[in-house]
Design a protein that fits this description.
Radius of gyration: 35 Å
Distance between the termini: 93 Å
Strand content: 25-35%
Order of helices and strands: HHEEEHEHEEEEEHHEEHHEHEEHHEHH
Mean pLDDT: 89
Structural class: alpha+beta
Number of helices: 13
Shape: elongated
Amino acid sequence: MKAATDFLKALDEIESEKGVSKEIIFDSLEKALLKSYEKNFKEHENVKVNINRETGKVELFSIKKVVEEVLDNITEISLEDAKKISSKYKIDDEVSIKLKTMDFGRVAAQTAKNIVIQKIKDAQRDVIYNEFQEKERELISGTIQRIDRNNLFIDLAKTEAIVTPLEQVKTEVYRVGERLKFYVKEVKNTTKGAQILLSRSDVNFVLRLFELEVPEILDGTVEIQSISREPGSRTKISVFSKNEDVDPVGACVGFKKSRVSSIIKELKGEKIDIIVYSKDIKQYLANALSPSEVIAVFTNEDENRAKILVPDSQLSLAIGKEGQNARLAAKLTNWRIDIKGFEKYKEEVENLTIEDYFSGEKEFIENGFVL
């Protein structure tokens, strides 16, 4: 009895510490004991193993069907013999005949042990996988446990995750023991357990940080339309408000820039441009080139192409270092953008043909370069 009590206590501890349901272990143990019985005794019986959930006592039963004429002694029993066990039995009933378990308990224990241990490991892996699969595409915090071959291995308490070089930010320096936030990019269930891929370079990492810091985004008042990012350097994010009384940019920036500053700190200094999304594509394209001023925007909507005129003094700002600002604006709007300085554009106008004009461009020129 003490052994059974200790067994039940052990199951309670496994359930508490490993998160593995006792019922899963009971089921695995019953299957393991049945395999062990068949292997060690090779008796021709249709056997069922049952473990009492309250006492931990193991019982074996030979299962037979009540028939008028017995054709298979292993699976069938006559009505006459069944009634010797209990008068309640009738044809087609199932009879459970208890078998002796003394020798079985001694011989089968070691055989069953390894099977049960493996089943517990499998169940534990499933528990961990299910837990983290629910966190896929969300933020998670973890500590850098080790760095091996440029891969970061992250301690998530219950398991270990990986950040491959592709999912790292090149400008960031990572240190063992450092605790950071990550985006859960993918969770796979493998034979070795849950394989968790984390990222700090994914554009959705920024999206989740804004959701975390800006309540108006989380409750749906402010929505993020699009994000373009060059990790470690700069991000552009376009937002709009469903409530005309709520300034979407102001909500994202926060009082004294508190909200956006927290995000920039987590991104280790990455610059962030927050712009207002507009259904008017010309206005949206102009906003996307922030912080540069824009004189005029002309579009070819059939080809998603735009000509954008900016003051000559701001041409470098509009294009950005190594073309970054223009590149991010193009990604943000999903438009091809050609940025021109205003004075240079006026010099090129005489070479344009009617086929070259974008929407609004002909009128702009005819009006003396005034919208």
